[in-house]
Amino acid sequence: xxxxxxxxxxxxxxxxxxxxxxxxxxxxxxxxxxxxxxxxxxxxxxxxxxxxxxxxxxxxxxxxxxxxxxxxxxxxxxxxxxxxxxxxxxxxxxxxxxxxxxxxxxxxxxxxxxxxxxxxxxxxxxxxxxxxxxxxxx
Length: 138
Prior knowledge:
5-stranded antiparallel β-sheet, 53% strand, mainly beta
């Protein structure tokens, strides 16, 4: 539920988001128990951008440059509050620790507020963005 801010845009276009776009707000590591198991990764991002347009969020794994998945919510109003949610399924492919990261940003220059709006926290810290990873036996 901690608030954070950033100013790096995450474009709303027809390209795969890259790990240099948006600002990183969340990370979560997992060590899968079987390479053939599935991982269900659920992402929820609450936030706002000081400029009008979409709030975009993307999921990355380790140092891979291209996003695995992304979500977006668009509203053309300044500081509009957003909830971006998406789920990604994948084969674990490893039994070593792997880290998932979520980056988010607005589509145009401005300040993105994570877990809040206009640079301030909302709901006393109980409004909490999240990453949930569930390992599903093959």
